[in-house]
Amino acid sequence: MTAGVPHLTTALTGPLLKLEAHLLERQAEVECWFREQWLQTPAPFYASVDLRNAGFKLAPVDTNLFPAGFNNLNPAFMPLCIQAAQAAVERHCPRARRILIIAENHTRNLFYLESLETLRMIFEKAGLEARLGSLRDDITENLSVELPSGRVTQLSPLRRKGVRVSLDDDFSPCLVLLNNDLSAGIPAILQGIEQQLVPPLKAGWSTRKKSDHFNHYHAVAKDFASRVDIDPWLVSPLSLQCGQVNFMEKSGGECLARNVTSLLGMIQRKYDEYGIDREPFAVVKADSGTYGMGIMMVKSADEVLNLNRKQRNKMASAKEGLVVDNVLIQEGVYTFETIGPDQAVAEPVIYMMDHYVVGGFYRVHTGRGVNENLNAPGMHFEPLAFAQSCISPEKCENPDAEPNRFYAYGVIARLALLAAARELA
Amino acid sequence: MTAGVPHLTTALTGPLLKLEAHLLERQAEVECWFREQWLQTPAPFYASVDLRNAGFKLAPVDTNLFPAGFNNLNPAFMPLCIQAAQAAVERHCPRARRILIIAENHTRNLFYLESLETLRMIFEKAGLEARLGSLRDDITENLSVELPSGRVTQLSPLRRKGVRVSLDDDFSPCLVLLNNDLSAGIPAILQGIEQQLVPPLKAGWSTRKKSDHFNHYHAVAKDFASRVDIDPWLVSPLSLQCGQVNFMEKSGGECLARNVTSLLGMIQRKYDEYGIDREPFAVVKADSGTYGMGIMMVKSADEVLNLNRKQRNKMASAKEGLVVDNVLIQEGVYTFETIGPDQAVAEPVIYMMDHYVVGGFYRVHTGRGVNENLNAPGMHFEPLAFAQSCISPEKCENPDAEPNRFYAYGVIARLALLAAARELA
Q1: CA of A49, closest CA in chain B: separation in Å?
Q2: Which of A26, A31, A396 should we substitute to test contact with B (largest number of B Cβ atoms within 10 Å)?
Q3: Does the beta carbon of B118 lie under 8 angstroms from any beta carbon of chain A?
Q4: Which of A403, A411, A401 is nearest to A387 (CA)?
């Protein structure tokens, strides 16, 4: 599936709340509010946000401060990325002429390397010398990798000398960009460097907690909702949390079961209020970690009480061996965006540089249902680049017309970005 | 002629100097230099720059701080304009939620109104309420005008109350954007207002002098050239000036003749140095004013000594009756960009918002030669929108490939923008 105009069929049950129409109508208010917010809390250097669109509700489910997937964006909107990258560099390190990008360790994933090379090219075109560095022990000299796109990318071993990191001894720029989420902990080589490291080390998953992010998100959504006069529930998933859960030792299960029951009840009351005839579901998430590890969908408390060994293993093992303790129980948001004759489920992912929305794509998955996690390990999705930008709403068109839906995505994604900004502040 | 891929045939004589290749090779240096410059001297709110590309040389001939022609830009790059407009608003008045755009007085020119409406839409999409105000005495109530594009635009009379200007009494935003070049002088209604007025009143042609601009430009070009190691002549027209010229009274003619002869000699020496087999020509320009009024092309001093009455009238009457006194004698830069089977002359015009290059188009004129002024009163041109952005150079392509040529345009246009910034500082 390549870039093109996606014809999305939104299979809605229940009343369609015109959230998009409302955001469009209040656009000046929305943008003015965001400008004020960024003055108070500057945006992270970059981010991607996974959204779920249930038609009656549009909410973020994951905010990635080390985004991959740049290769899935529409090439037509690369200039927008380049311009925003220039703005981001100007704000963080205006005198930079070079940038060192630190890669994830799963460097055998060619799709990830395509994303990295696209990211590198964005900075090159923005007018910086840009190179890729790796933290892997087994990369001891410059490694060239031929990519499926036909491009060749180069990874170099990151070296430490005094209070600076460099590649090849002489490439030691003032600006170091992390594209590694630090799930395995903060590596010694990055500690105490004098260079400008963005995002900061505390943005990594060794420090960051999903519950913190969503606590900030709820506050952001509440502020925003009161400013533009909507119910905050329309843009945020309800959530509860449990501390001290150990899936392997089966401790903390009562808290989980109690909170799942409680959350499902809260969702049901909201569904009743809006006349939504769907079965509520909850998502149980490990507080740290990514890649869809440690995530489970449940429709009753029984499901968390009666986990089999395989399920417990899955919940206990987040990426690179992070131990699960705190657990987030979040309202599941249905995805009612589907595409094509097979009604494949489509989940939007929005990309931002500084506070600018630079594009997005749909994760399109044919084998999964509307209430399943689209970002699970081993899962296969086809990216479908957004055909238009997210910053060009058309007031004279239908509120659900493509540019307007994309605009709404960009608004909600920026709410998540603002939550991340407050989280890091 | 509509937006599409222009196939330009550059009919070069003499050695083609690879200015584009050089800028491309030094891109990181170029962009780093610009970032430093904008820190020292912030860019004007917006601008357009007319360039001439002689193949061996690429130089600005006019810098407009009240740009029109936004309707000629490629609609595909509107998101780039919108994003840059957001950046410009954030820098000048981050708390703005509305913007009042003050129009030129020639409001019967429907092409101009198309540009204004496009500009208004850019700000609307950027998330501001945007309206158009007029200074004309004969506009006493809101005036709706149907445009050739089918859009309807609305002009409202500008009102003054105390230290603020407004439309309809209640539209009185903190940000007032001038799109009127003030050739007729600074109107009383705009003097001493407390609102943020951009560009400032002194950017208008009642104050601004072309000779100031080009003096700053020469200094900018010199700095830039030494930083990226080129001959500054490759990016700047040689120029001289005469004060106290009165074409009607035939005074100051000796100075003009002497300087024309001197300048033609200087150009010839440069042509000899680079082996360019072309006849030098000079452009005589009134120091203030625009729209191609008060401009004359000459190949010898005799031409300025023997002006007929009609020519003298033309030189003496700049827009809205400005009297010509100081006169600029500038190196004429050949346009060696032609398009189509008729070899129509094409002159690039580059648009910027804040310091971001947001697009451009070619003025394509079939009835004129390579050394004639393409922006003359009553002239007819067809706009040809750039097919690609100016910020996405492709190092793996030919240095003269479209994205690279557009990148070079953007670099030279920003030199002119920087000169304007220093002029206003």
Answers
A1: 19
A2: A31
A3: no
A4: A403
Q: For residue A18, is pLDDT > 80?
A: no
Orientation of helix A78-92 relative to helix B27-40, angle to 10°? 50
Measured between beta carbons, which residues in chain A are less than 8 angstroms from residue B125?
391-393
A81 touches chain B (CB under 8 A): no
ipTM of predicted assembly, 2 dp: 0.90
Residue A360 makes CB contacts below 8 A (sequence gap 6+) with A73, A348, A349, A350, A351, A385, A386, A390, A406, A409, A410, A413
Pairs of CB atoms within 8 A across A/B: 102
Please list every residue in chain B whose beta carbon sits closer than 8 Å to the beta carbon of residue A35.
89-90, 94-96
| Nearest CB partner across the interface for A76, out of B39, B76, B125 | B76
Distance of CA B151 to the CA centre of its chain: 26
Mean pLDDT of B101-130: 95
List chain A residues with CB under 8 Å of B78: 392
Pick from A110, A179, A107: which is nearest to A137 by CA?
A107
Q: How confident is the model at residue B337 (pLDDT cuts 50, 70, 90)?
A: confident
Cα–Cα distances (Å) from B397 to A76, A130, B39, in that order, read: 18, 19, 32
Q: Which residues are registered as beta bridge partners of B46?
A: B353
Which one, of B27, B405, B21, lies nearest residue A127 by Cα?
B27
Cα separation, A110 vs A105, whole angstroms: 12
Q: Residues B135-183: pLDDT tens digits?
A: 999 999 999 999 999 999 999 999 999 999 999 989 999 999 999 999 8
If you average pLDDT over each of A238-252, B188-202, B300-314, B361-375, which comes out highest? B188-202
Cut 0.90: pTM above it: yes
Strand partners, A52: A59
Place of tokens 């060192």: A100
> How far is the CA of B204 from the CAs of B65, B201, B208, B289, in angstroms?
8, 6, 6, 9
Backbone conformation region of residue B162, classed left if phi is above 0, alpha if psi is from -120 to 50, else beta:
left
Cβ distance B35 to A80 less than 8 Å, yes or no, reads: no
Average pLDDT on A136-157 reads: 95
A222 to chain B, any CB pair closer than 8 A? The answer is: no
Taking CB atoms and an 8 Å cutoff, what residues of chain A touch B27? 124, 127
The reply to whether A76 touches chain B by the CB within 8 Å rule is: yes
DSSP run (H or E) holding A203? none
Which of B62-76, B141-155, B292-306, B410-424 is predicted with the least confidence, judged by mean pLDDT? B292-306
**Structure tokens, A186:** 């903060």
* Residue B59 phi, psi dihedral angles, 5° rounding: -145, 155
Q: Which residues contact B308 (CB under 8 A, 6 or more apart)?
A: none
pLDDT digits (tens, 9 = 90+) for A88-120: 999 999 889 999 999 999 878 999 999 999 999
- Contact predicate B379/B292, CB 8 Å: yes
Residue A90 to residue B36, Cβ atoms within 8 A: no
> Would you give the DSSP letter of residue A77?
G
Give A-chain residues touching B96 at CB under 8 angstroms.
32, 35
* CA B146 from centroid of its chain's CA atoms: 27
Which of A161-165, A247-251, A368-372 bottoms out in mean pLDDT, i.e. has the lowest? A368-372
Nearest chain A residue to B94 by CA: give it: A35
CA distance B30 to chain A (A): 8
Contact of B322 with B286, CB cutoff 8 Å: yes
In this predicted structure, the answer to whether residue A12 has a pLDDT above a threshold of 50 is no
A175 vs B: CB within 8 A: no
Cβ within 8 Å, pair B32-A77: no
Q: Is residue A199's pLDDT more than 90?
A: yes
Q: How far is A45 from A85, CA to CA, in rounded Å? A: 9
